[in-house]
Amino acid sequence: MSDTELIRLKPRRIRVVCWASAAAVLVVFSLVATSLTGRTGDGYGTFQRGDQLAMVGLGVFGALAILLFTRPRIEADARGVRVRNVIGSYELPWEVVRRVRFDRGAPWASLELHDDDLVPMVALQAADEELAVEGVRALRRLHQAHLAASAAGQTIR
């Protein structure tokens, strides 16, 4: 394992679902916007062009909110791991990581830290099956290489 090896991981299945869902939300809100014409009911109000534009705008905001779920990524190298989840990011050196976990039945993998904290890695989702397993194995190899290098460095001193 070289010191320059860089691992980049992104979820696959959730990205496809999110893009399809965002497109569907945008289409549905646009169709609803085109149907907003005439009177609002028994009252005196009527739908205006601004109401239609507002409905399309809500569709755009809804689609963007769905696309937030395509944000998770993981980058790891010999120095550490950078985790970007839906909300929030972490940059952790391997020294603070106890192990890489992917428990049976868990929706995604996580990093167990030496202070007993768990950092979720939403980019490694169980729904991606073999892709997630290979990603966890690659992260474990990097972590083991760091542990071996640390142990060798401590015995030399």
Q: How would you describe what is shown here?
A:
With 157 residues, the chain is an alpha+beta fold. It is 44% helix and 23% strand. The protein contains three helices and seven strands, in the order βααββββββα. The chain has a four-stranded antiparallel beta sheet with strand order 1-2-3-4, covered by helices on one side. A three-stranded antiparallel beta sheet has the order 5-6-7. β6 (108-113) and β7 (118-125) form a beta hairpin. α1 (13-35) packs antiparallel against α2 (49-67). The longest helix has 27 residues, at 130-156.
Number of helices in the DSSP assignment: 3
Question: What is the number of strand segments?
Answer: 7
Low-confidence stretches: none
Widest beta sheet: strand line-up:
1-2-3-4
Strand-and-helix sequence, N→C? EHHEEEEEEH
* Average residue-wise pLDDT: 89
Shape: elongated
The fraction of residues assigned to DSSP E strands is 15-25%
Please summarize what this structure is:
It is built from 3 helices and 7 strands, in the order E-H-H-E-E-E-E-E-E-H.
